Amino acid sequence: MMSASPSPSPARDSRAAKAARGERARPIYVVNGPNLNMLGEREPEHYGRTSLAEIEAELSACAKAKNVALVFFQSNEEGRLIDCIQDAAQNARALIINAGAYTHSSVALLDALKLLSVPVVEVHLSNIFAREAFRQHSYISPAASGVICGFGAAGYRMALNAILAQTDMPQTGMPQTRIKDTAP
Ligand code: DQA
């Protein structure tokens, strides 16, 4: 007869396991940049008809089912986005970011994201690589664990699932450490 495996003794329940549990209790930040407050109305041919409030509600339901806390933030101002990312560097388990047009212009956002030692997933509703040349370069991708683009509103849920796959199953997930900036 098979016996149930014993519950871990305090000695076996290592500090690392406790630290991992503490880390998982932290929220995942979902940060949206300029003009994303206009989703649903703005260029629906690129960004669809789902509003940001609807995206956040859907993500909340998804996170609740997985027992994960989320922090939502949207701003049209670069400095406020940086303040939020700095806050996430102290408090977040991971960060999902759609930086909107700042993706293509902001070294300051890149620098802020480099403060994070937890997973960062860059999301775009549209496939930026199939659009104008100026949208095909992201300043922030070097600080991201991964990039999801072209799947519309579903990209945010994909990002959440990718983070959970990485942080709950590190042996099968994305690399734990982000590639260091090798630029001179
Ligand atoms: C976007 C793509 C950006 O080029 C654009 O400026 C946005 C939205 C996207 O989600 O597809 O504001 O980040």
Plain-language structure description:
The protein is α/β, with parallel strands linked by helices and 184 residues long. It has one domain: Dehydroquinase, class II (Rossmann fold), CATH 3.40.50.9100. Helices cover 35% and strands 13% of the residues. It contains six helices and five strands; from the N terminus they run H-E-H-H-E-H-E-H-E-E-H. Strands 2-1-3-4-5 form a five-stranded parallel sheet, with helices on both faces. Strand 3 (94-98), helix 5 and strand 4 (120-124) form a beta-alpha-beta unit. Helix 4 packs parallel to helix 5. The longest helix is centred in the C-terminal third of the chain and has 15 residues, at 154-168. The radius of gyration is 18 Å and the shape is globular. The structure holds 1,3,4-trihydroxy-5-OXO-cyclohexanecarboxylic acid (DQA). 1,3,4-trihydroxy-5-OXO-cyclohexanecarboxylic acid (DQA) is lined by residues 35, 98, 100-101, 103, 124-126, 128, 135.
Q: Helicity level, as a percent range?
A: 25-40%
CATH superfamily: Dehydroquinase, class II
CATH class label: Alpha Beta
Q: Distance between termini? A: 62 Å
Bound molecule kinds, no repeats: 1,3,4-trihydroxy-5-OXO-cyclohexanecarboxylic acid
What is the number of helices? Answer: 6
The CATH architecture term is 3-Layer(aba) Sandwich
Structural class from helices and strands? alpha/beta
